[in-house]
Amino acid sequence: MWIDTHCHWDAPEFAEDREAVRARALAAGVERFIVPAVQASDFARTQALCRAAGQPYALGIHPLYTPGAQDADLALLDRLLHEAATDPLLVAVGEIGLDFFVPGLDPERQQFFYAEQLKLARKHGLPVILHVRKSADQLLAGLRRIPVRGGIAHAFNGSTQQANAFIELGFALGFGGAMTYERALQIRRLAAELPETALVLETDAPDIPPHWLYKTAEQRAAGERSRNEPAELPRIAETLAALRGWSLEQTAALTSANACRVLPKLNPPARA
């Protein structure tokens, strides 16, 4: 069984064939894909889609959406986390974090929403799914001030020292399409050298396409699009397997076990 730990299946890019995307994922052996919401206006729709499909989800305010976020969104998140406390499909608070790569975002506003959502994760006993882009040290500082039940550092591309700091705080690190590019030397080195218990797989669909889906600037200008989807996960996993010297079966078993460890509600119920 494969688990895609980060997939925006609720995104508009999947509006026309969402069920076909899910069917292709299941056919490829991707039995579960975690759908993290990105803004308060999406919470109800993300919940409804995932509950209907039996897929896990997370609720949170993404740093790129903090310019339009309000204090009332945090109150809504708090209420929904309380109401869904017994929902086995709600596995984390996310996608939350900090983004110091995209220009024009207010760092103080990002820090406010990040800290407040860490407090909600701690209040409700949930792990978090973190957006990490040029922000690993600041995210780690926040986690040390407001400890939570670990989680996943999504699309990790930091240093070995930063990776180990997340691991010490109970986090796994997400690896996906970027790892398939031969020039992604740092990501591939991390994937090859970090403890096997620290690795989970993701697509970030429809984003971060693997190399076989990549479109050049000229192709994009001509209207061609590259849409990633969860069915690509096993092929992405082949890169990790090659880097580690694992079989695909080992890779599926290890990364799925890691996902279930850091997101405990993913664990299947005990059989009677």
TrEMBL record:
InterPro entries: DNase_TatD-rel_CS, Metal_Hydrolase, TatD-like. Gene3D superfamilies: Metal-dependent hydrolases. A divalent metal cation 1 binds at H6, H8, E95, D204. It comes from Inhella proteolytica. It holds the Pfam family TatD_DNase. This is TatD family hydrolase. A divalent metal cation 2 binds at H131, H154. Belongs to the metallo-dependent hydrolases superfamily. TatD-type hydrolase family. Keywords: Hydrolase, Metal-binding. It comes from the Bacteria. Coiled coil: none annotated. One of its GO terms (molecular function) is metal ion binding.
